[in-house]
Amino acid sequence: MPVTYLELENFKSYAGTQRIGPFFSFTCVIGPNGSGKSNLMDAISFILGVQSRELRSSQMKDLIFRPPGSNVHAEELSAKASLVYVEPEDGNEEGDEEEEGGGGGGRLSKKLPRGKTTIFSRVITSKGIGEYQINNRTVTFKQYEAMLASIGVLLKARNFLVFQGDVEGMARKSPKQLVEMFENISGSADLKEEYDAALKAKEEAEQRTIFAFNKTKEHKSERRQLKEQKEEAERFHDLLEQRATLKTNYFLWLLFHIHSDIQQRESALAELQETLEEHQTLVNEKEAALKSAKKDASKARNVTSSKDKLRIKLEAEVDRLQPSVIESSEAIQALKKRLTADEKTVAKIKKEQEAHAVKLSELQTEIEEYQTKETELQSEYDELKQSEDGIGSLTEEQEVRYEQIRDAAAVASAAPRRELQSAVRALESARAKAAKVAEEKRDLIARKGEAERSVNELTERTEKLGQSLKETQADLAASESELEALQKTASEYQTKRDAIETQIDQINNTLRQAKDDRRKDKEEERIVNAIGALKRHFPGVKGRLVDLCRPSQNRYNLAVTVAAGKDMDAVVCDTKQTAFDCIKYLRDQRIGTATFLPLDSLQIPSPESTERIRAMAENDKRYRLAADVIRVNDEYRRAVLYAVGNTVVCDSLDVAREVCFARRGNVSVEDRLKAVTLAGAVISKAGTMTGGVTKDDSNRAGRWSEQKLEELRNQKEALEVEKADLDSKVGRGSGGHIAKAEDLRNTIGNLRNKEQYIKSDLEYSKKRLKEQVALSKSSQQMFSKLQKKEAECEEAMKNASAEVEKHRQMVRDEEEKYFAPFREETGIRDFRAYDEAIGKAREEFVKRRTEIREHLAKLTARKKYENEKDFDDKLSKATKKKITHESELESAEEAEKKLMARVSEAKAKLADAEAELKQATEDEVAVEELVRAARNVLKEVEEDCSKVMKALNNEESDLMVLRQKLHETLQKARVDEVELPLISEEDTNTNKDFEAEESQMSSSARSSKRLLSQHATQESLTHFSQREDSKVAKDRKDAGKVDFSTMDEELRKSLPAAEEDKLRKKFESKIAKLSADIEGIAPNMKAAEAFDTMTERVKETMDDFNTAKEEGRKANDAFNKIRKARSHMFNAAFKQIDDALKVIYTDMTKSSKHPLGGNAYLSLDDSDEPYRGGMKFNAMPPMKRFRDMDQLSGGEKTVAALSLLFAIHSFRPAPFFIMDEVDAALDNVNVLKVCNYIRQRSNDFQCIVISLKDMFYERSESLVGICRDVSSSSSRTLTLDLTKFDRNHHSESELKAEKRSRREIVPKEAEKLKRRRTTVEAV
Question: pTM for this structure?
């Protein structure tokens, strides 16, 4: 029992100083929740070096007990925890000791071991600082850790503690965490730093070795390149010499022919100058004749001009008189119209006079008729008055007086009548006002009702519009979501479809280019990229010939490849200039070199020779033209003919021999044939034979191979089927998506418009509703006002009616004052009745009489008016006016006759002037004809002179061009540094004589130029047209120094322009080809020196490489040594723990039902270096299949984890093992198995377990009870020795019952269990 006691002082919940123990081999700590069991575990962990943050506290001060209500400051508190460890001795004798239990006063007895005692303590000072003590002596943590390690307690591996939850954590550990734990247990973690350092040193040594190797390789490569550059520089010198010789011959040929042409042109120029002088004299004579004719023509034009001026003057006179004639004619016409009007006026007046007399007679008749009507009306009225005897009657005089009295009464009652009228008007006004108020009231009621109806309707409309707006917005959101989903689907479909089309295009491109399963090397990729760049920059580049053509059949692949040779990889372009530009681009970009075939300058076999060979091949089917077995567009046919020429493709070598050698004696060298067999053998025109096929030829021929193309075609068909299926799922192509999307967009647009319209309508309806509500409220207010106003109007009407009756009575009273006397006089008492009986008839009589009298007055007035009209005076005035107009007309006609006479005279003079002008014009035309004839003659002479001058100018222009060409040729020869051969001193005299002759020719030329200076444009020519110019003289002198004797006779011959151009192109093409070769080389002139230097560097880097390789070997050996040691330590621990795990897990899972138990094992990902990989922990409970640890139940995981913990403990056994509630997830059966295993191992190590299950602590040797002291709010302990109860006896029946319930336990263990349970229950 290594751990004997624990001594705690103010640690966590343990107040004061408490001595807990003794602890036996199998001790259980029990107590209710919250009593302090885990604090006891924390105390042991704290003593054994576990950090405070892992003890459920953030700092050291939190571990000090603080009694509640205490006045002690926190700075004065301290805590201490000590563990009394007794190291067991072999063969020691056990003695009896008696210890007092904590707080209970009970006594426990046990035979405690005797041996060396060590007290491990940790102190928390009042400042919150921790100290480590051994036997009450302060030590460092390293000393403390070393002391614990000496007794088998490993702090890093923590092989002595199992906290609450560590068992489940063990089952959940990842493979990497398991490896880390095993490294701490095995001790291999101590070698980690040394391992990492050795690994780093090994990797650095390997890097140095690789660097040295690469450096050596690089230097060797550079040396190889420098060797190639050295050889290239030598070849460069040879090409320079060849180009210099070719340029010399070329420039000699140019200078010789230019110099000869200049001499010929100068002699021809002298002859033309003499001819020009003759033509110039003739031109001067013709110009004098033309000048004389022009003078005569000028005189004739002056005469014509004077005659024309006279004609113009007379025309002006006629034109001046013509308006007067027109004006006179118009005046006569106007007078005639006035005279006609006067006659009509006189006739009209006479007619009106006759009608007036008739009208006066009618008026008189009508007046007499109305006078008779008035007399009859008076008689009828008198008879009516006589018929009304009952009422009384009035005489005419009385009626007149009655009228007067009535008028006087009306005058007297005027004031009260006016007041009456005012009162009536007031009454009418009150009635009108009342009617207006009533009307306003009715209108207001109508408006109010209308407003209320509008409010109801607008409220309902607002609600409907709000609902419609919500529905529209919902539909809009749904449509937008649907459109977004559709667009997403369409995008996904289009993406997938584009990917399929891309794959199909790639396969088609692969099939077109016939790359069938052939991977391009780096050089091929570089060439392809370079050609792609050329195509982008130069539209004239067509591509490689091999990409533009293909054999008609696969069997011709090799033959066509051999026949075309390197030209098959040449680049086809449209013009030579394009080729030069491409070469310059390749050189500037340093991409590489390439051969170009410009279609405009390729030399191909003549069509005659080609057709002849084709005809021969048609007769003999064993061979055919190589050009005929190649498929190519007509645009590139010329390049194919250049590449293969008239080469024939033969079926076999024998056929090729027969074709090439059988006809050799009858044909020239040019007509000999080159033959290629299907197997790749070649017979050249020279007769040499080449056989065999290189790897390059096979690869090049394989570019057209049809092998494995079927696989690509099948893949293409599958992709097309997939594409068709995709199209069928979503509609024909993407059209369905587009149409649907367009419909959705239209729908969204309509919904947005509808939403906008509804919002606008809703806003308008709300505004109208607000207005109608306000109108309804105002109508209600106005209604109350109108009711009040209506009452006021009724009151005013009532008052006005009373006033009217009052004033009406006053009017009656005033009238009675006048009618009373007249009533007494006439005896008529009731004038009102009289008015009612006679008044109506009298009124009718007066009315009719008035009408008659008024009509008579009108008729009398009209008659008077008509009598006042004076038609005689009016007729006299009209007649006088007519006579005046007649005299004016006679005067106007006389003036017109005189004016017409003057016009006739002016027109006669104008006719004479026009005749004279016509004669003068004819004379002028005749003179102009003479001038035209003289001008034509001069023109013909000038044209002849111009032709001569043109010929002269052409000669001078050609001579100038030749001189310029000579200058440019010499200049170019100087620029190109062409070495031209010069003549010796003996030939200089000949050149001087030649120059003298040329000086004489130049003098005559200068004289002729002076003659032409005024007509030609020689002054504008450049200095090359001037023979005496210094540059021209210098060029002539330099050309004369050139020695042409070394020229070939063939080059001296004068050739036609086409042949000369062909020869020039031949020279230029050769020079260009050599220049292109030279430009393509770009030699390193210091390559030889650099090659020697690089050879020395290679030797140095080889030494460095050997040294680095040796250092790498040593570092690798050191690393392997540490790696083996670390792996050995890890594997040793792993093997022992794995073996122990299998046994322990089998024992813990074995039962009567499963006598074989379960199986558990560990496995490594990397057995060589296990610490770099992971570790798997697997367990298979009895009668269950293999599962991952995560799929096991909680109890199965706990048993497996405990087995692993016990196995780990068996590898590095600590003297004690402390576990906190490891049985929480176990059922009774598994708890019993764990208890049995602990009891079996109790002789090997001490086990202290915190548990709440009675089955667990029933089987322990002692109990430590933890309880809560309420008075001090601290934890107290009780200790109980259970071993002394093993000797108590119980009845046989109880033992039998216990055996039946515990069949797995041996009889002795069952008896002990029974006794312990009884004892625990009693306590």
Answer: 0.37
